[in-house]
Amino acid sequence: MTQNPNVPLIHTVSVVTLSVDDLSVQYQSQGKKIHAVDHISFSFSEGESLGIAGESGCGKSTLGLAVMKTLQENASVSGKILFDDISILETSDSEFTKDIRWKQVSMIFQGAMNSLDPVFTIKKQFMEILQKHNFQGDHVQTIESAISSVGLSHSVLDKYPHEISGGMKQRVVIAMALILKPKMVIADEPTTALDVLVQAQIMILLKKLKKDGLSIILISHDLGIISEIAEKVGIMYAGQIVEFGNMEEIYKNPKHPYTVALLDSIPKLQETKKITPLKGNPPSLVNPPSGCRFYDRCPQAMEKCKQDPPKIKTASGFVMCWLHE
Ligand code: ATP
Ligand code: SF4
To answer: Distance from CA of residue 56 to its chain's centroid?
Structure first.
């Protein structure tokens, strides 16, 4: 399915700033505290897109869910999240639902294409979103415009989820996230579980949305995919952002040994070098080590790395590593 370049995209062009300051999220589970996000700070703005990369379980989705104020009930959160001048954590749930969620910032949840309701047509599922948000405009026209903007024909609206392909379902889910014209969308692993050709088509769609002014936070375990779209990137490891800065700078000159390992795991066509998978596992988030969390897997670990690493300023961000003290 190719995108029709003549169909206008549905969101408004705008400039947003997201600033996260000392954010921590802990889950209470079976009598234990899981430190899923631990004292994270970063910011980005002005039509930029941000990638959050890291292994499974490092806290990427939790970070996205905290920005969307949709964490599960067993989560406790502290710190500050500013979206433009809105302090997200200080906004009441009802106010956030009424004015911000889906209207200013929305999320393409991980695996959302598999949670489309099998007993309702796609149109009915769009209608429900608009009704839930008390949308006042022309419902049918808005839905048709949303579905066109992601390169699908209107005939998809009369289909049930099982009647369309995985790539079409993912486009439907993206259209749903955009229907109330948010300024920013958080896309959590939007290409995972799709074959490579469909992955490429979804990336083309996201790039087009970005070109038209949408700010995107792309969450992925795949730094290669992130490098296609994001100007800024945060590398997450065991609940922390260990390196943050401009994508190009980090891609060309990664500073944290974990970032180096992530980049080494991306296959490159022009290189014959063997891919080196990272050995070992990240530490438990129930009782994370007090020193550098990458210590057990780091080829350059030193004695002092048993202490908490300093946050060293780089040209466009920071790196948390004793090597760059
Ligand atoms: P993935 O890519 O596999 O989704 P992730 O990097 O997005 O991983 P999170 O899903 O944010 O990571 O999970 C971070 C940690 O928090 C993991 O150890 C996970 O098991 C734990 N976790 C996530 N949600 C909950 C929850 N509701 N209750 C308890 N623990 C949770
Ligand atoms: Fe490796 Fe030490 Fe840097 Fe941690 S602080 S990544 S152990 S060199």
So the answer is: 13
Tell me the CATH number for domain 17-104+182-324: 3.40.50.300
pTM above 0.85, yes or no: yes
| Cβ 255 under 6 angstroms from ligand 1 | no
Amino acid at 125: Q
Task: Write down the pLDDT at residue 13.
Answer: 42
Helix (H) or strand (E) holding 81: strand 75-83
- Name the helix (H) or strand (E) containing 173: helix 166-178
Instruction: Give the Cα separation of 138 and 20 in Å (integer).
Output: 36
Is residue 164 within 8 Å of residue 180, measured between CB atoms? no
Q: For residue 296, how far is its CA from the centre of ligand 2 (angstroms)?
A: 9
Query: Can you say how many angstroms the Cα of residue 314 is from the centroid of all Cα atoms in its chain?
Result: 23
pLDDT digits (tens, 9 = 90+) for 40-98: 999 888 678 999 999 999 999 999 999 999 999 999 999 999 998 899 999 999 999 98
Taking the domains of the chain in order of start, what are their residue ranges? 17-104+182-324
Cα 259 to averaged position of ligand 2 atoms, centre (Å): 11
pLDDT (0 to 100) of residue 16: 65
The residue nearest atom 20 of ligand 1, judged by CA position, is 57
Q: How many residues does the chain have?
A: 325
Contacts of 108 (CB under 8 A, 6+ apart): 173, 174, 177, 185, 186, 187, 188, 190
